[in-house]
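Friendly challenge for the regulars: who can give me the structure tokens for this chain first? No prize, just bragging rights.
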Amino acid sequence: MSDPLYRIDLLRLAADAHGAGRLVTPDVSGFAYNPACGDKVVIDLRLSEGRVTELAHETKACVLAQASASILGANLKGADLATVEALHAGVADMLGAGPAPEEPFNAFAVFAGATEYRSRHRCVLLPIEAVLDAFQKSQRPAKNTE
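First reply, four minutes later:
Bragging rights claimed.
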């Protein structure tokens, strides 16, 4: 019998690690931390006109967060804040037994086995929360250094 949480597709996504690493000169970086398990995600973004042009992530976390970050690394280019907010809501809904997000984020369907493990929902959402943190930081007025 196979474990519905750690399916081979999920493990493959984590191993692929799309976007793993850090950008040398990001426009903004976001951070998310789960104190319940110690998972940490840093997301570096380059933005143009409010849309992601490049993404990298440093994910020191469980395989669920690693796979989630890999999906973002492969599919987030071109997304704006509204898209990421909708993605967060859609993945949260899916984890509550709703439908998987649509293209290009339908790969999140791999987490369907996590619906019955509420304590693991945050692991899946953590990389998206780090992207949201980066977008929020990008919208703050720059500090005057004069």
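The two ends are 64 Å apart (CA to CA). Residues 114 and 138 are 32 Å apart (CA to CA). Your move, everyone else.
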